[in-house]
Amino acid sequence: QVQLVETGGGLVQAGGSLRLSCAASGTIFKIYAMNWHRQAPGKQRELVAGSASGGITTYADSVKGRFTISRDNAKNTVYLQMNSLKPEDTAVYYCNVVHTYGVGYTNYWGQGTQVTVSS
Question: Rounded to an integer, what distance in angstroms lies between the CA atom of residue 87 and that of residue 13?
Fold first, then answer.
């Protein structure tokens, strides 16, 4: 099993910055991808940014140029640096890890951290 602990959410004014962290622990064999998703009230959960093996990153169009995802593989930790925050970035942010023990993949999810951007 893999456990995820997210930190770094909070309340910030529009134009401000926040940095989210997500640390994976437990019986880790190989992490294929580490991603950040978010879910705003009344909306579906969406992928914000992803980091796959080999350094491949992907971003939602709405956050390109403002958010940066990075990983520390030695610490099994993924970060999301969020700059120039907008009120529409307000959501619960979830860390997601795609993990394998050698056969197949399993998705693990963090508990979520609230990000609120005031106008």
Answer: 8
